[in-house]
Every structure is written in structure tokens, then in C-alpha cells.
Amino acid sequence: MSIEAARPEGDEPLRIASLGAGQIGGTLASRFAAAGHEVRVANSRAPSTVKLFAESIGAQARHGAEAVLDADVVVVSVPFNRIAELRSVVSRAPADAVLVDTTNYYPHRDGELGSFGPEDTESEWVANVLGRPVVKAWNSILAGSLQTAARPSGAADRMALPVSGDDPEAVGLVCGLVDVSGFDPVVAGPLAQSWRQQPGAPAYTTDLATTELVEALARAERHTLAERRGEMVRAIRHLRGWGTHAQRLAIARRVFL
């Protein structure tokens, strides 16, 4: 496996559709719009329900099927058990649009999915369900860290995030967007290796710098993922109201590193 630090390529404005406007999707949409990209925001309800948010960040509120029509990038940020609902929406995006999967599977939240097995790599399953290649990114960061830990490029305390995918051009484009979102991108290998950034892995929600992240990806052990994911969930459940961001980060670092 080859893991390397990556630098973003190009700075042309992109048409970006964000399918999901929650803590991850909404924060990313805001960063992309602030960087000058044309951003369309959609959720599972009517555009009117995200209109105020979209206007506040300089984006457009759209139905999902409309948002993706001529998009360069489609960011999928919905609960894992709702991925299948997006297949018809994603099918309307251009064939060369880059599809980004930010999701994670949690059994306690998503339930048992008949087509998803314990040995499946999450993003490979997502690609199969959606019928399109995907790049995996932004799944490995807590919402609180995404919102507060972004730093300018070159900052000494800048965190890094892994990006996995099979198409080098698509991965390079997403690396550029990771940089725009305030983090150093690290190419973590093909999609088949993206389990190294899934829940339970050392790279997952532990807020690492580039060198630390490269090391964490390399020492991930697939057979421990489910057990460590469960340990983290059990620890967080004991916190009042699922705890603060600082508490969740501390648990992730204790369990995964």
C-alpha cells in the first residue's frame, strides 16, 4: 500500500451539489461557497426547508435531482441507511461528475442492511448501491472538528484528512476541495483500502497532522474495526446527551489510537 501526502490541483470554480445539509454537508457547502464555487444545497425535503441556510452562505436551494444536473462534484452526506434513496437522484448527474461519499455505517443508527455485510468496505458498497464510482473523504472527522479546526494552508497546527479513490483525477480534485475546507489532504489509496479510514480505525475522528495520519492509516487492522467502533459507541452512550465534542474526541483518541 502506498500512502502519500497530496497537494491540491487547480483552482477553477466548480459546480458542487451537496446532497445533505446537516453538520457535515452544511459545513462543507459553506466552505465551498466561501471559496467561490457554485454550490447547490438539497435535502430530503423541499428546497424551502434549506432556503434560508443556502442564502446565508451564498448557495442555492434545490431539489436533489435538479442540483446534480450539470454538477462537477456531488457530495453525499446523508445517513448510511438512506444511501439507496439517492440512486435515482445521482443517476441524473453528468457521467464525469465526481461523487464524494462522506458517510459511515453505524449499526445502532442504521440497522441491519440486507445487502451490506460485515466484511464489506463501506464506500465500495455505496458505489455499488449508487451505481457510480465514488471518492471517500470527510467521513473521518467529527462535525465539531470540521467546524472549528480548519486552518489556512501551511499553518503549523493544520490537521490532515484521508482521501480514497480509484480515479487519480477525481482524487486530485477532491484533495483540492479538502484543502479548501481547511485541512491537508492525504491520498490513502484505492477505494478497496478505504476501510483504513472507517469507524474503528486509528485515522477515524482522532484529529491528526499529516505525518501522524499517514502512520495511522498504515497501522490500521481491519479485523478490529467493528469491535473498536462498538467500544466507542458504548463509551459515548454513557455521556450525558452523547457528550461534548471534546469528550467524543477524547474517547476516539483513547479507543482508536
The description of the largest β-sheet is:
6 strands, parallel
Helicity range: 25-40%
Strand order of the largest sheet: 4-3-2-5-6-7
The parts where pLDDT drops under 50 for at least 5 residues are: 1-9
| Proportion of residues in β-strands | 5-15%
What overall form do the CA principal axes indicate?
globular
How many strands? 9
The pLDDT mean sits at 93
N-to-C SSE string, H for helix and E for strand: EEHEHEHEHEHHEHEHEHHH
The class by helix and strand makeup works out as: alpha/beta
Radius of gyration: 17 Å
Distance between the termini: 20 Å
Helical stretch count?
Answer: 11
Any overview of this molecule?
The chain has 257 residues and is an alpha/beta fold. It contains eleven helices and nine strands. A six-stranded parallel β-sheet has the order 4-3-2-5-6-7, with helices on one face. Strands 1-9-8 form a three-stranded mixed β-sheet, with helices on both faces. Strand 8, helix 8 and strand 9 form a beta-alpha-beta unit. The longest helix is centred in the C-terminal third of the chain and has 13 residues.
